[in-house]
Amino acid sequence: MNTVIIEKNKYVYKGKIYEDKEIEGLIKKCGKNIKVVILAENPLIKICENIDLKNRKNVEINILSNLIIDDDTLVDYIVDKKFKKLYIYSIKQGIKVRKVLMRADKMVVEPIQYILISTIKKRFKVKGDYKALIKINNYLYLIHVQNRKLVYSKTLEEKEDELVKLIQQDLVGKSMLVDINLKDIIINKVLDDEQLKNITYINLKEKVDYEISKI
Question: pLDDT, tens digit, for every residue of 99-120?
């Protein structure tokens, strides 16, 4: 499959940036089998509990009642029968995704948060609950995973004050996987050794780049 990255108002294919007016040329180059990766957007997450998951209609009603859906919204959900929970995810960029996929025969759409989760599981063999922080391009991505499900996500432009907030609110005193490229910044901002020992640095960015580029 050919991978197209959508980040805000641009499309990226094989390192080249395309705008909306160039979409026809992009589609011709991508072919019929396309994977779209969404960057710089934060998924909204709704977790519904104690619902009848055997009844598909109940699942659909819960999805519709918990979301505000427009033409730009993409929706995904996971049914957890063991814990009787319904995880509902929605994210923007639906209009751009449909433009890219209008002539595709085979397609996959993934927000970067999904790729982070699959990469951490596959490349680092992490099975339990965890938090992870990474910087990709000009954005910081923070995710919380419980029972192998995404339960919290935060996406911020990479600014020093925003990173400091993340450190103060989400890193301090809590165990977390952090991309090694953020190590020096965090060490300079978090002075307490007791806090720093809760952070595990991993080469996450390199592995995520590989997972995206190999498609």
Answer: 999 999 999 999 999 999 999 9
Helical segments of 66-182, H only: 94-101, 112-124, 160-166
- Calculate the alpha carbon distances from 141 to 125, 134, 170 in Å: 20, 5, 12
Kindly report the number of other CB atoms within 10 A of residue 49's CB atom: 9
Phi and psi angles of residue 103, each rounded to the nearest 5 degrees, phi first: -120, 15
C-beta pairs of 196-201 under 8 Å, 24+ apart in sequence: 198/171, 198/173, 198/174, 199/171, 199/175, 200/175, 200/176
Q: Residue 66 CA to chain centroid, in angstroms?
A: 20
Assign a CATH topology to domain 112-215.
Answer: Nucleotidyltransferase; domain 5 (3.30.420)
Helix%, strand%, coil% for the chain, nearest 5: 35, 35, 25
DSSP 168: I
pLDDT tens digits, one per residue of 164-189: 777 777 766 567 899 999 998 888 87
Alpha carbons 91 and 76: distance in angstroms, whole number: 9
Euclidean distance between CA atoms 173 and 192, whole angstroms:
10
Domain limits, the chain:
1-41+94-104, 44-91, 112-215
